[in-house]
Amino acid sequence: MRFVHTNLRVHDIDASLRFYEALGFERRGRLQFEGAYNVYLGLPGDGDTLELTVNEGRDEPYDIGSGYGHIALAVEDLDALLERLRAEGIEPEKPPYHPGGRTEFTICFVADPDGYRIELIDGDFTTPQDY
């Protein structure tokens, strides 16, 4: 078994593509259905791990709901990435910080045009084993 992709329903595909491409995602392909299509993206050297679905003819934004948390991305240089994002008009929710007092990595969150949160992790992140 292997992880294939995360799917997000988006309202404005052009704004979403600008956002995810600013994060470093590359367009990989498109699959058309009756009344909808998927755009597949991936990070360099990785699979097509992000699927953006556009329901044609939808005028209102999606309600994210209370169950969605975030997507997490490990990044090489958080400061440089945030500088590139700022040039695109994308600001973090709050300044980068060390979660739970863990100094081996730094995180911050940005939101895409539909409000989906993306966690950016800089440093040696390994899943905490506190239990």
First-residue to last-residue Cα separation: 26 Å
> Which regions are unreliable across 5 or more consecutive residues at pLDDT < 50?
none
Major sheet attributes: 4 strands, mixed
Neighbour order of strands in the largest sheet: 1-4-3-2
Overall, the morphology is globular
Number of helices: 2
CATH topology: 2,3-Dihydroxybiphenyl 1,2-Dioxygenase, domain 1
**Strand runs, count:** 7
**CA-based gyration radius:** 16 Å
CATH architecture: Roll
Mean pLDDT over the full residue set: 92
Listing every helix as H and every strand as E from the N terminus to the C terminus, the arrangement reads: EHEEEEHEE
Supply the CATH class. Answer: Alpha Beta
What report would you give on this structure?
The protein has helices at 13-23, 78-87; strands at 6-9, 26-33, 36-42, 50-55, 71-75, 105-111, 117-123. The protein is an alpha/beta fold. The strands form 2 sheets. The protein has a 4-stranded mixed β-sheet with strand order 1-4-3-2, with helices on one face. Strands 5-7-6 form a 3-stranded mixed β-sheet, with no helix packed on it. The longest helix is centred in the N-terminal third of the chain and has 11 residues, at 13-23. The chain is globular. The chain starts with 5 loop residues before the first strand and ends in an 8-residue tail after the last strand. The mean pLDDT is 92.
